[in-house]
């Protein structure tokens, strides 16, 4: 083995060991919380929290709850249901009506604050009945992004066990893979309202159109994607490795997105960037 290969191998072992150490910290953090209600979106972060909490505390002391609203893609709800069945989670859904909140619908840069406030209000009676604390799958990396929803959650007493354990997104994925969780490489899936530029109102029609366009692209085999909404124009973000394929299959891509309701279909050559509308008022296409 070359010296460079040895260094790389040692670094991998060290990284893996560090992630496992943080898993131990996560388990200890959850154990001292007692009963918990997990805000369960089915993404890599909340899935790890749900699985570890259920393993540590037992399903009778862990309630995993998925908020159902127009901002949740149908595929995500279906996957939450499947994960709950596969992992033996005690799982409920709760309907949320954030779209009826004028401050949320106005889509200012604090939209996520109002969304999380609605979520925590919906979870509060469940947590009270369980004599539990609400926990969210927020990781250490999330603290560096524009996430006003975290403030709303903190103000209402929610806890972030991944942050307490010092786990980054990469470590969440590493630990999840080591635990055999199929969510370890699941693409990030923020709420559908995140596809709408700040200042553009969030409506049921807009969310339905975005959802239909993204579902159609997934049906074509694209996995990590966003359809950014600019009226009758869709700006598609894909992984850089998928850009050539999208161009070669442009007639399929255009047909799929137009069928969802868009007139113009564009491909962002910078590729997929999670949260790239954060901090912008009204970006231009």
Describe the structure concisely.
The chain is α/β, with parallel strands linked by helices. It is 48% helix and 12% strand.
Describe this structure in words.
This protein is an alpha/beta fold and 285 residues long. Helix content is 48%, strand content 12%. It is built from eleven helices and seven strands. The strands form two sheets. The chain has a four-stranded parallel beta sheet, sandwiched between helices. The protein has a three-stranded mixed beta sheet with strand order 5-6-7. Helix 1 crosses helix 2 (44-57), helix 5 (111-130) runs parallel beside helix 6 (148-155) and helix 9 packs antiparallel against helix 11 (250-259). It is globular, with a radius of gyration of 20 Å. The N and C termini lie far apart (50 Å). The model is unreliable at 2-11 and 279-285 (pLDDT under 50).
Span between termini: 50 Å
Multimeric state of these chains?
A: single chain
Structural class, by secondary structure, is alpha/beta
Q: Specify the helix fraction band.
A: 40-55%
Globally, the shape reads globular
**Secondary-structure element string:** HEHEHEHHEHHHHEEHHE
* Rg result: 20 Å
Structure summary, number of beta strands: 7
Number of helices: 11
Sheet with most strands: strand arrangement:
3-2-1-4
Strand content: 5-15%
The biggest beta sheet reads: 4 strands, parallel
Instruction: Please state the average pLDDT score.
Output: 91
């Amino acid at each position: 083995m070359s010296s460079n290969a040895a260094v790389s191998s040692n670094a991998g072992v060290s990284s893996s060991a560090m992630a496992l150490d943080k898993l131990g910290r996560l388990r200890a953090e959850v154990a001292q919380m007692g009963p918990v209600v997990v805000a369960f979106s089915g993404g890599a972060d909340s899935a790890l929290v749900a699985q570890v909490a259920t393993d540590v505390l037992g399903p009778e002391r862990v309630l995993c709850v998925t908020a159902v609203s127009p901002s949740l893609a149908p595929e995500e709800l279906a996957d939450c249901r499947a994960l709950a069945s596969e992992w033996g989670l005690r799982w409920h859904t709760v309907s949320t009506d954030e779209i009826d909140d004028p401050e949320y619908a106005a889509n200012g840069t604090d939209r996520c604050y109002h969304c999380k406030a609605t979520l925590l209000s919906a979870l509060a009676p469940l947590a009270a009945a369980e004599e539990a604390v609400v926990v969210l799958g927020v990781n250490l990396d999330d603290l560096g992004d524009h996430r006003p929803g975290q403030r709303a959650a903190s103000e209402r007493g929610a806890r972030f066990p991944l942050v307490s354990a010092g786990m980054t997104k990469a470590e969440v994925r590493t630990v999840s893979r080591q635990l055999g969780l199929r969510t370890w490489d699941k693409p990030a899936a923020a709420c559908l309202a995140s596809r709408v530029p700040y200042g553009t109102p969030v409506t049921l029609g807009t969310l339905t159109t975005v959802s239909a366009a993204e579902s159609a692209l997934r049906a074509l085999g694209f996995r990590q994607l966003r359809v950014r909404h600019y009226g009758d124009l869709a700006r598609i973000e894909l992984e850089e490795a998928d850009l050539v394929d999208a161009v070669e299959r442009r007639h399929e891509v255009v047909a799929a997105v137009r069928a969802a309701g868009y007139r113009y279909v564009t491909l962002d050559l910078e590729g997929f960037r999670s949260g790239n509308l954060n901090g912008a008022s009204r970006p231009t296409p």
